[in-house]
Amino acid sequence: MAIADIITRIEQDAQAEADAIVAAAQERADDAVAAARAEAGREAAHIRARGAEVARVEAETLLANARLGARDALLGARKELAERVLVGVREALEALPDAEYAAFIARETARVAVSGQHVRIAPPDAARLAGLGSLVARHGVDVVVEGEAGDLTRGVRVQGDGVRVDVSPATYVAEYHDDMLQVAVRELFPEEG
């Protein structure tokens, strides 16, 4: 064999070996690209799933907050309506016919007063409560009615022995506020009972 044949043969062997190395490298590169694409696909699916879960949780939270807000608004509206009923109760007590109003104030005065205490009447109620002393006495309590309490708008003020108690439709509603509010809610919203 001539040197030219040997060189050709070496070149052919080198080319074959280079082609084999390039083919193997190409195959490894193709495998690496395929693996990277597969991993990217899995990661993308994971990111989508995680994003979907985060979106679901956020949507549930928003819905729960919206429901709570709506419930709070409804409860607030119902309480406001029930409070208006109590304003109506106070106004109805103030609008009682004179004899019934006087009997109401006398009963409530006798409940808080003890014999010997002094009672002053609100100027707007002076005429309506003219016979208050005898009405309170019917309940077994003797009080001294001694004029007007200029700062009162309704009812009376009981004073004595360091005690000072106002008796009026407003104080009656305030004293029984919680009980009356429950009754108003039950009457206004029987489906809740």
Helix/strand layout:
Blueprint: H1 3-94, H2 98-112, E1 118-121, H3 132-137, E2 144-148, E3 156-160, E4 163-167, H4 169-175, H5 177-188
Parallel strand pairs: 1-2
Antiparallel strand pairs: 1-3, 3-4
Helix pairs in contact: 1-4, 1-5
Describe the structure.
There is one protein chain. By secondary structure, the protein is α+β, with helices and mostly antiparallel strands. It folds into 2 domains: 1-95; 97-181, hypothetical protein PF0899 fold (2-Layer Sandwich), CATH 3.30.2320. Helix content is 68%, strand content 10%. It has 5 helices and 4 strands. It has helices at 3-94, 98-112, 132-137, 169-175, 177-188; strands at residues 118-121, 144-148, 156-160, 163-167. A 4-stranded mixed beta sheet has the order 2-1-3-4. β1 (118-121), α3 (132-137) and β2 form a beta-alpha-beta unit. α1 (3-94) crosses α5 (177-188). 12% of the residues are buried.
